[in-house]
Amino acid sequence: MVQLVGSLRKELADSLYTCKVLVVGAGGIGCELLKNLVLTGFKNIEVIDLDTIDVSNLNRQFLFQKKHVGKSKAQVAKESVLQFCPSANITAYHDSIMNPDYNVEFFRKFMLVMNALDNRAARNHVNRMCLAADVPLIESGTAGYLGQVTVIKKGLTECYECQPKPAQKTFPGCTIRNTPSEPIHCIVWAKYLFNQLFGEEDADQEVSPDTADPEAAWNPEEATARASASEKDGDVKRVSTKEWARSTGYDPIKLFNKLFKDDIMYLLTMDKLWKKRKAPTPLDWTQLENKGENEGKGNVFLLFISFMNIISLLILNCSSASPQEESPASGLKDQQVLGVWGCCQLFKHSVETLRSELREKGDNAELVWDKDDPAAMDFVTSAANLRMHIFSMNMKSRFDVKSMAGNIIPAIATTNAVIAGLIVLEGLKILSGELESCRTIFLNKCPNVRKKLLVPCVLDPPSKNCYVCASKPEVTVKLNVQKTTVLSLQDRILKERFGMVAPDVQIEDGKGTILISSEEGETEANNSKYLSDFGIRNGSRLQSDDFLQDYTLLINVLHTEELERDVEFEVVGEAPDKAPPPQSNPEEVNSITNGNKDSAQPSTSSKAPADEDDLMIVDSDEEEGAPSSSATVTSGTKRKHSDLDSDKSSTKRPRTDPSAAAGDEDDDIIALD
Predict the structure, then answer these.
(1) Is 96 labeled as ligand-binding?
(2) Nearest Cα residue to 626 out of 382, 416, 509, 458
(3) Cα–Cα distance between 188 and 170 in angstroms, integer?
(4) Residues labelled catalytic
(5) pLDDT tens, residue by residue, 25-57
(6) Which terminus of the chain, N or C, has fewer Cβ atoms within 10 Å?
(7) What count of other Cβ atoms lies within 10 Å of the Cβ of residue 225?
(8) pTM for the complete prediction?
């Protein structure tokens, strides 16, 4: 007779008692996961999270209370979970998982790693570390009501980077507020700002740096002291952005200096944020005004914009044309990119216009952002562009900003709970030595034809073309060697695109020329030089090593002068939406449908626009012959390895076999993004 300890076999229960596991992320999924682990019987747990607790986390991250605001998520999560199981041995790290201290040897300490992350960069890094350490990884993510859990094991399954990911559509809150790296981050921030000033306030849409954040000084002793101080009054006092703006009479210059000067100067005090990032540059209204940037062209253009806005409103009110239709003149105007001073003037004018609209509506009135409202669109365009300039990004036209502005997927506490339970169930299979029974499981918003919300799929084998887990990772990059600098190669290609943390690059020229060194200052003089200055040309090969990730990538350089405008490089053969080759056996395709997700700043935070269970599938829809990469989806897309933000998702490959459509019942998966 099988001996049981609770609901588990004694051998498995003993394994839980002795094994050591790592949880990366202590946010939406992480809180639920830590609780599940200790209640299941896990005794040795280490948890790491860079983030601190914000008021907006309290509606779903149940291990945190109001008195914890401003404290380390990892530390408070540990203390809260110990109340469930005081005998558990939990170690908490308030740090980034991408810190070099957490090397391959660190990962080898664990029998199992569980991700509860909210961004792609950290997911890529943990994926590579687990591959290097040969430790099983359970990846997860959620996006609203959708979620996914999958298992990654070196040599047996696809790794997180085996399938190309689409551009990120949802972003961590800490990225929006503190470390934007793409124009879309600034556009989302500007939309949040509109609501904070003129619309319905939402704690999840805060735009200012957290003044209670212990990371500000990056002094552990000071952080502890500040956390203790915040505990005394059980709260961190905050002033509503809208209340402050009202107290100034919505003065556009005071708003400007707070948002683009004072808040940026505060961000600069968070020293550690800027060790590996370019620091932002604050703007001062008076200095810009005195400088008279663009020799007053901003004013002229502003008058033109105002005139066109009036004309647009007259057209909308006096004709039956669709509000989305624009005249050729408007289109030309919208496609121009303003200078910094032009954006300043546009910001001032839009604030004054929106202030007047608020006053007309009366006390406690609220405005709703609408892309077809000229003043609202001008506000978002100007605010987003000013923030882009501060963080050294190329500014965008009004047309581009309008087309990029999208919706943020909310975090749902129930989704986090379901996914966290599924993570534990997959973990129990791994510890039982039943890796072959592990599955990728998708949580859908609506039941499918078989009335199932949970859809399991067989794990896919590793991709032979993966530039991470292949035996000899190799890629071809198309770029202009006469225009691409060494710094661009390092930051935009190696770090941002290929997810390296501290790359060393050597030119395969027979001399072993070192192009980039991870040792600080060693090759800094090369940064501003072009690749062609080092003899790199069409056909050159570069070997890039990241010793922290124990990862080597061979890069073939393909020189071209025909890249599209604003495109710095292309990875040859990369096609996220490319269809797979025709199936040799149509019946294999006729199986389960499923979905998946995707989302980048180095952080283990789970605080995001879209964030981070204990359900047993009794009546499985699974068909053993159907790997998840072959599963069909009516929409023509499939969600693939979670970047669902610890809460988020990704597109996959479209169906190519028409016969599969007719026979597949589970074809109502909603593909995100």
Answers:
(1) yes
(2) 458
(3) 9
(4) 174
(5) 999 999 999 999 999 999 999 999 998 898 878
(6) N
(7) 12
(8) 0.62
